[in-house]
Amino acid sequence: MQRQRLRCPGVASHLPSTRPLCACSQAHFSRTALAGDLGVDAKLVVKESSRLLAAAVDVVASSGWLGPALVAMEMSQMVTQGLWDRDSPLLQLPHVTKEVAQRLAKDGVSKQELHRGARRAPCHLNSKARAAG
Fold it and tell me: Is 98 within a domain?
């Protein structure tokens, strides 16, 4: 397994107490499994992050701070979806891997089209689905 170096940009990176939080969050966004106590901690971080971000959105939005409100909403969406903001929205769909999302995007298939079933999947994906079924 390839080992990734997780980094926390910004002010929090120099504080030792924030490093596990950053590692758990980044593993969640990258959909990387963590072993042992760190895996248990990651589940707790995700659960608590959702609630804290919802409260942050409420506070900054009610204060009229548009920039921080948008950042908090984007971060909340990342936590809920378990994806980085730069990842394909197709990865939210069940059984869609990064490779499948890249092929679908190359073929011009959107998440909405797949969800509605408005367009058939490309032939190379249909044959794999039939073989697996």
Answer: yes
DSSP state of 84: -
Number of domains in the chain: 1
Question: What's the pTM value of the predicted model, to 2 decimals?
Answer: 0.62
Rounded Cα gap, residues 13 and 107, in angstroms: 40
Q: Tell me the two tokens of residue 103.
A: 């092929």
Q: Where are the alpha helices (DSSP H) in the chain?
A: 19-30, 36-62, 66-81, 98-106, 111-116, 123-132
* Nearest one of 82, 104, 109, 86 to 26, comparing CA atoms: 82
Do the domain assignments include residue 113?
yes
**The domain containing residue 118 runs over which residues?**
88-133
At residue 119, does pLDDT exceed 70?
no
Q: What is the CA radius of gyration of the chain?
A: 18
Rounded distance between C-alpha atoms, residue 3 and residue 88, angstroms:
23
In a domain, 122, yes or no: yes
pLDDT tens sequence across 41-80: 888 888 888 899 999 999 999 999 999 999 999 999 899 8
| Rounded Cα gap, residues 49 and 21, in angstroms | 10
